[in-house]
Amino acid sequence: MSSQVTSLIGEVEPLLKDVQNGGLVKEVELLTKVLNEAMIDVKALNESVLTPDNRELLQQSVSTLTKTLKNIEVILWKIFSRYNCFVNIFLKTFMQQMFLQSISGDVSNITGDATTRHNLKHLIEALTRLLGK
Asked: pTM above the 0.70 mark?
């Protein structure tokens, strides 16, 4: 324990001498002066850049950007809706064709008569159009 205390005193002693000689105080004063000058520069920059006119222009730009993004959202929603509608129509038509082919195959197995198959197919297509309306 005493070796740790001796080591700690050895580390602190140069700092205490520096404080007594005024070196550390001078460095803190210099650092404070530099920070104060930096704050003055930042304040001047803020006043020159964020003028009332520039603030108004920034507000207008943000407002325009917001409106533009909302318009893009509306356009994308319309495109998606049309695409979704197209996909639904395509799937419905595809499923109807698969259903018709399945029925045609079943009728073909039962009857073997091409005219009967053809008439049944037209009947099913007509019913599908009627139900689709």
From this structure: no
For 64-101, give the DSSP string: HHHHHHHHHHHHHHHHHHHHHHHHHHHHHHHHHHHHHH
Helices (H) and strands (E) in the chain, counts: 4, 0
Q: What is the pLDDT of residues 76-119, one digit of tens each?
A: 888 777 777 777 777 777 777 777 666 666 655 666 667 777 77
In whole angstroms, how large is the CA radius of gyration of the chain? 42
Q: Which residue in 90, 86, 116 sits closest to 103, CA to CA?
A: 116
> Residue 53: pLDDT above 70?
yes
Say if residue 108 is exposed, middle or buried (CB neighbours under 10 Å; 0-12, 13-18, 19+).
Answer: middle
- The pair of structure tokens assigned to 32 is 């404070």
Token couple for 3: 């070796």
